[in-house]
Design brief:
3 helices; binds zinc ion; NE0471 N-terminal domain-like; globular; alpha+beta; about 30% strand; 6 strands; three-stranded antiparallel beta sheet; about 15% helix
Length: about 110
Amino acid sequence: MLTPRQTLPTRVTIDTEAQQFQIHWADGHETTFPLDGLRKACPCANCQGHGNQQLPDPALFDEPADRTWTDVQAERAGSIGLRLTWDDGHDTGIYSWERLRRMCPDDPRPKSAD
Ligand SMILES: [Zn+2]
C-alpha cells in the first residue's frame, strides 16, 4: 500500500529540452519518466485496451525514444491526477497520481497481486 504522502505531488515539471517528466512527491521522492515512455504508458482505453489497468513493464522507460515531444501539456484532473495532452493530438489519458507513483522506475514495485 502506498501512503497518502507517496501519492501527493508537490511539483510537476515537464522538460521538453531533456525530454523528461518529473514529479516531486510529499514524501521527498522524485520520479522521472522519459516523455516518450510516458506517452507509451498512456493509461487510456485506446492505448491500453479496455479493462487493462495493469502497470506497464518498467523496461518501457529504458527503451530509446521513437520521437521527440515538443509540446506536452498537463492539466489537473480533479484530485485524481493529471490529464496529459501530447503534440500528436492525444489527450484522453488521465494519469492518476497513484499510477504515476506505482510506475516510478526508481521505486521498488509493491509486491501486491493487483
Ligand atoms: Zn491513450
